[in-house]
Amino acid sequence: MNQDHLKQLAAHKALTFIYDKMKLGIGSGSTVAYFIEALKNQLKEKNWQIYASFSSEKSKQLASCQEIIHLDDSLETPLDLYIDGADEIDSNLFMIKGGGKALLREKLVCHASSNGMIVILDETKLSKKLGNHPLPIEIIPFGYKSTIRRIEDLGLKGSLRRNKEGKMDITDNGNYLFDLTFTSSIDDPIELHHKLKNLLGVVETGLFFHVAKKALVAMNDGSVRIYE
Ligand code: 5RP
Predict the structure, then answer these.
(1) In this prediction, what percent of the chain has a pLDDT beyond 70?
(2) Which of 73, 82, 63 lies closest to 22, judged by CA?
(3) Mutate to test the pocket of ligand 1, among 97, 169, 204, 208 (most ligand atoms within 8 A of CB)
(4) How far is the centre of ligand 1, averaged over its atoms, from the C-alpha of 86 (Å)?
(5) Looking at CB atoms within 10 Å, which of 6, 122, 137, 203 has the fewest?
(6) pLDDT tens-digit readout, 111-134
(7) Of residues 45, 76, 88, 106, which has the active-site annotation?
(8) Ligand 1, residues 3, 5, 12, 28: which to mutate, most atoms within 8 A of Cβ?
(9) Hey, what domains does the chain have and what are their CATH numbers?
């Protein structure tokens, strides 16, 4: 089964967590795009309406329809649930996210959810220990070279994310992304997150922990396993 098909499977499974009038946080990425498509169909079929907050402008656009009422970006209203993908996940349901540039808003929307997050992904993203996928760090543009020096002073290596035209990639928040790469796995993701967050110029890291309640993992044999 190809990866897109697996992403669709996981996305469809997440529909079982949707109910009328719920307040939902919706993440970003290609798996979430499949989820939004399926969600729109389900809401129409059942004649339901939901309220939603989004972690990216792109998801917001994809979810434009009568059945999804967009909450404003203040995140004042607590959400019932957050559904999003991930780039890599370990057996503690710790994750690397931000491959799609949206890690900061993803973390904010995720933390606005009273019942945490349900992760939708395929089995290629399962990992014993995090560090196979690059770890995105959102940094502010002002003084970015000095911020990168502080990151490298921790013994870490990475590169600034650029778009297809070779220009600096900019997040929805107007920031840059520095993608860390690892030669071996990350020993202690929580400690690494805190070390990075303490650095001047770092806004957020793509390490997510203690937020995922369930992971819906589409397997090559066509089943969807639930990890919790
Ligand atoms: C975006 C994310 C996505 O959830 C992650 O990159 C997975 O994306 P995809 O579903 O396209 O594989 O963190 O910032």
Answers:
(1) 100
(2) 82
(3) 97
(4) 5
(5) 203
(6) 999 999 999 999 999 999 999 999
(7) 106
(8) 28
(9) 3-126+209-227 (3.40.50.1360), 135-205 (3.30.70.260)
